[in-house]
Amino acid sequence: MSTGIRKKKKGGKKPVDPFTRKDWYDLQAPAFFSTRKVGKTLVNRTAGTKIASDYLKGRVVTVCLADLQSNEDYAYANIRLRVEEVQGRNCLTNFHGMSFTTDKVKSMVRKWQSLIECHTDVKTTDGYVLRLFCLGFTKKRQNQVKKTCYAQASQVRQIRKKMLDIMKREAECDLRGLVEKLKTNTIGETIAKDCQGIYPLNNVNVRKVKMLKTPKYDPSKLLELHGEAGSSGKKVKN
User: Fold this and answer.
1) Rounded CA separation 45/52 (Å)
2) Which of 28, 86, 89, 188 has its CA 20 to 30 A from that of 144?
3) For residues 223 and 190, what is the distance between their CA atoms, to the nearest angstrom?
């Protein structure tokens, strides 16, 4: 007579560590940053029709600007890099955006002053479309006794118009030139200087950059950004 109890089969598949089928790849930043090797990323090893490089392309990583420049003074900004090409065990990346850290933005906001911000879409000479977000604060005039330094609505409109015009004018260069301006805050300094006659400004920065559209992929231009224009640029499959 059957008892209805089934005996469990012994054996079966042993658990396999998933890391045994993965490989590490180095992330390489463009040449306009002083530190090129910024980290490593994991991907499943090539097997059959699943090619490792296809899974790496398009990955976006966030790196602190202080690590890219080897300078702690730049710790307030994060840079986004996107993997565009794979050469051997190196992933060649390109600039994909920038943002200020939350603590940096909050440290700039204070009482008794006006906050002025705006954003605009710009296009570089090499075909990249980006959205720039600008942030600025009013400050006391020289020898001012009054506690507050609020700008009038008409002054805010004039300052915002100046911000938009300057951002569009400064973006009339290639991507490399724009990133250099963002690193040194050239755009913010120009805005503060030009708006001095309307109302004195303080802590003017491009706090965020968003990549909206990129031109058609060109391997030679990517290698030029990485300082390898003279190399063949052949794709290496893994």
Assistant:
1) 6
2) 188
3) 32
pLDDT of residue 53 exceeding 60, the answer is yes
CB atoms within 10 A of CB 27: 20
Amino acid identity at 125: T
β-strands 90-100, 37-44 pairing: unpaired
Q: Which residues, including other chains, have CB under 8 Å from residue 57's CB and lie 6 or more apart?
A: 83, 84, 85, 86
* 88 touches 60 (CB < 8 A): no
Angle CA 63–133–32, to nearest 5: 40
pLDDT band at 17 (very low <50, low <70, confident <90, very high): confident
